[in-house]
Amino acid sequence: MSTPLNIIFSWFEKGDVPTEYQFQQAFSSFRHLDEKIKMDEVMGLNEAFQKTLSTTTFIDHLEDESAHHLVLAKLNASNLTEANVEAWKEKLKIKLAATIDEGEETGNVYTKEQIEAIVNILQAKDDEMLEFIAKINKILDSNDDDLDELQEIVGYIKENRGQIEWLKEAIARNISDDKINLVGMYSSWGAITYQDQFNDLVYDKIRNIEDAASPEKNKYEERVRGDSKIKHDLDTLSFVIDAYDTVTMFTVPLKVRRIDTNTIEVLFDSVPPNIIQLTIKKI
């Protein structure tokens, strides 16, 4: 039988001299590490085991397909109600998933019969288009004079595309240009057809004469119709540039990129409607 702690403490107070008996009683009141505790000596252990399940009962529960069927879904979803299914759709965001038609009810997908009807309509349209193509090919293969004339017109357009594009540009700018024919000493100036081309050429020749007469070139002028790469030969990266519309006489904003000391690139925010006069001055 163990001795209460308060009795043991009283044997070892200051000034006491414990006896052999007291030492034996003190150490006998505690368990040694080498002494194993028996299960029936643990308080409440037997009662705790009485509350546990047997291995058989636990395995039976694991294998029972109806276990917790009110709160857990089966693998085959056989215990899901209609409300459960709708809840799963809502959670998985598949409320708008396609549904298959049943009977005469129309869902949000086509039935096989409906698809076949649509394909038949498309096939009929395709056959109709093929008939039209066959008729066109037959007409093109004929020797009809009207078609021959049409072909000549197409050929003329291809051969004179440059002049047509220039004419379109002239119409877009709302200007007119007289047709001219250079004779005599001017015939060596090249293929000049319109007055506007002649004016540009004369301007360039006058500019070249002025540049040649100048002892030191410090200015360069040129007319452009849009974004251009210009070789000014001023041998500098320091210059000022003036640009104005030759019709409205308004100053035109532009961007300038220096490529080297003799070449620049001018860029406009949009295509100018008229010819732009550029003057580059060396500083």
Sheet-strand content, in percent, reads 5-15%
Kindly state the number of beta strands: 6
Q: With helices defined by DSSP (H or I, 4 residues minimum), what is the helix count?
A: 9
- Mean pLDDT reading: 78
Helix content: 40-55%
Q: Label the overall shape.
A: elongated
Strand neighbour order, sheet with most strands: 1-6-3
- N-to-C span: 119 Å
Poorly predicted spans: none
Q: Helix and strand succession?
A: HHHHHHHHHEEEEEE
Structural class: alpha+beta
Our Rg estimate from Cα atoms comes to 53 Å
Largest sheet: 3 strands, antiparallel
- Quaternary structure annotation: single chain
Descriptive overview:
The protein has helices spanning 5-11, 20-28, 45-50, 55-63, 82-92, 112-140, 145-159, 161-172, 195-213; strands spanning 219-224, 228-231, 239-245, 255-260, 263-267, 276-282. By secondary structure, the chain is an alpha+beta fold. Strands 1-6-3 form a three-stranded antiparallel beta sheet. Strands 2-5-4 form a three-stranded antiparallel beta sheet, with no helix packed on it. A hairpin with a 2-residue loop joins strand 4 (255-260) and strand 5. The longest helix is centred in the middle third of the chain and has 29 residues, at 112-140. It is elongated.
